[in-house]
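Case study.
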Amino acid sequence: QTVVTQEPSLTVSPGGTVTLTCASSTGAVTSGYYPNWFQQKPGQAPRALIYSTSNKHSWTPARFSGSLLGDKAALTLSGVQPEDEAEYYCLLYYGGAQVFGGGTKLTVL
Amino acid sequence: QITLKESGPTLVKPTQTLTLTCTFSGFSLSTSGVGVGWIRQPPGKALEWLALIYWDDDKRYSPSLKSRLTITKDTSKNQVVLTMTNMDSVDTATYYCAHANTAIVGPDYWGQGTLVTVSS
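After joint prediction, the assembly is written out as follows.
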């Protein structure tokens, strides 16, 4: 069974920069996995942030960016705001089926 | 404006079959490239991708749940239905439906979710 791995938790100071990563048990993550990133706050439905590695939705704040970093997909938040405290999930495409990562709880402190 | 809303039972018994309906507006499932998917989230746990149906009736399922899932669409009613057989307590979760398209390869617009509890 395919497993997608994210850091369980990260902490960042307001105004700082943090990078979350997303790894696949099948090997290096490439653009062909069409990495997506989502933000979820308590009691809310997830909100899409990034698709196809680095593309932003029309509602995605400019401080969020996606990339490939080594053999992983990455989400970077620059100039972190207190409201960015949330759970972040990546999603990878495996030729039809899709798999979510376990999520990263981001604390802004 | 794209909106989606999930509906179905809030409580099901073990071994029963769950049927959830996603009713949407703001797009058509007859439009090339468009899809609707289902994702679930057990309380306090991570998201889990379940299934996706495309405009051309192409269907994709989570390999680990494929034997228990069926996804169908009714284009005229703007609805997508997910059935899951042989429900168990571990299937207790909030179930979300979401809009997708082949250009994005991932859900963009999400419903609010519906909590389904499996208990006798």
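Observations recorded in class. Chain A has no helices and eleven strands. Chain A has a mean pLDDT of 97. We will return to this complex in the next lecture.
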